[in-house]
């Protein structure tokens, strides 16, 4: 064997050892789990009073539309099993319970697939309410099934701490799956940005730098009093239009280097904060940033947590809260 | 059997080189099959998300059948052509009064209250207000591929010095498209479902506004296209307003 081939074999072997020997970003994955869970919960809680009109058997998205669209797409929905009030009530509340368990991190190996099933089912029941953020959310939930997202910040964490660690082939396969799942999530985000940028570069209004003017002027995406100042200003409009395309094109390549990765994340946070504030697309931005969070890496997340903890405690001790809350 | 998830947290497993040969072989096999699946899936995802191109034209169906339904996605929002108009939904109703006489109400604006609702609860909005904008979006949906073809044809026709014909059916039938291209099957599906949705939503609102005597509803879709950016400050250019009246629809409940 030549020296070059031996070196390649060693590198390959080391890569395999890394990928199967250490679960990356378990803290980041746990944060993603909690954060996505909160978005799912908002579908149940914020719409609780409207649940019959939005998702019930007699919803504005009629049963005929629901079944027809489902049949065309070729998917399933738990809500389709029966058009009865009792079944709807059961599935809706079961979905809410599963979401709570998902956020708390209880038996994640079981609950994450359930969470995907219930969320997918709910989204099919009324697609009119959805946006791109929800589209990404349900895809990421599918990849989360591979990810060990219950190792931290979870009810499982305590139970797992005492258990004997496996280091056989099974444990290595699970670790490989975990790392592949995380990589899948971030690859999906890269494809999203690239596709979005490519479509934009084909549009006349994106080319001549005025697209942002039209979008910000639409009443659904306007922040009264602020948007107008921005969309009437040539500098803001042009910079915003080109900046968006440039960022989306650059994002995947910025991830290749450890330091530019932080730049990619900062750019994403800035862009999505802008979209959330100015265009009112709160959950969309929330999902995007949430999904990119594991890119920070657990060491940085730990550092941020360590920085936050004493400050949060100081803040809490200064606030006049009932004793029970303070001790919690 | 040990718990597969009970990995020592933030810790590595002992080096793979020290593991028994069986573990090493199984791990390598798992890695290779996972890598294969990953590569295929994301090659599909990548092609699926591209704008129409020669490769997609060729393998698009295969790719779509891999991706649908659970990985279906669409990232061409606001692109290539961003939305450049405000849309509004109005409803009027045929109401049978207590005296059995039927009268037609004036139009009631459904969009403004929905927008106000969205603005008031801006930071954690209920998506209830999206019902109206979502219905409008479905009613005005244009298949992106068909749109590209239409725009290209329109441009070619204009270049040849001919004006593109715009045919619009009588009582608000499906718009025939700029250059007389019939709607695609996706557009017809959207339209059919959008009509049912519009009837439901309009009937609910009409009943709330005009009472239980509502027998039928008519929806008016108003579109206000903005002036171009360069003309944004001209007081005599406030954009173009067009509207379409959907056919009367019998109240479903």
Supply the helix-strand structural class of chain B. alpha+beta
Distance between the termini of chain B: 59 Å
Mean pLDDT of chain B: 85
Write down how many β-strands of chain B occur, each being a DSSP E stretch of 2 or more residues: 6
Walk me through the topology:
The complex is a heterodimer of chains A (328) and B (253).
Chain A: H1 3-21, H2 26-45, H3 51-55, H4 63-73, H5 85-104, H6 108-125, H7 132-144, H8 155-162, H9 169-201, H10 204-207, H11 211-217, H12 227-231, H13 234-254, H14 258-279, H15 282-292, H16 298-318, H17 323-327
Helix pairs in contact in A: 2-5, 2-15, 5-6, 6-7, 7-9, 7-15, 9-13, 13-14, 14-15
Chain B: H1 21-48, H2 54-67, E1 85-96, E2 102-104, E3 108-109, H3 111-120, H4 130-139, H5 144-159, H6 185-210, E4 214-225, E5 240-245, E6 249-250
Antiparallel strand pairs in B: 1-2, 1-3, 1-4, 4-5, 4-6
Helix pairs in contact in B: 1-2, 4-6
What does the model show?
The complex is a heterodimer of chains A (about 325) and B (about 250). Chain A is mostly helical. Helices cover about 75% and strands about 0% of the residues of chain A. Chain A has two domains: about 30-155, no CATH class; about 180-295, no CATH class. Chain A has helices at about 5-20, 25-45, 50-55, 65-75, 85-105, 110-125, 130-145, 155-160, 170-200, 205, 210-215, 225-230, 235-255, 260-280, 280-290, 300-320, 325. In chain A, helix 14 packs antiparallel against helix 15 (about 280-290). Chain B has about 250 residues and is of the alpha+beta class. Chain B has two domains: about 1-75, no CATH class; about 85-130 and about 190-250, no CATH class. Chain B contains six helices and six strands; from the N terminus they run H-H-E-E-E-H-H-H-H-E-E-E. In chain B, strand 1 (about 85-95) and strand 2 (about 100-105) form a beta hairpin. Chain B is elongated. The interface between A and B is large, with 96 and 84 residues.
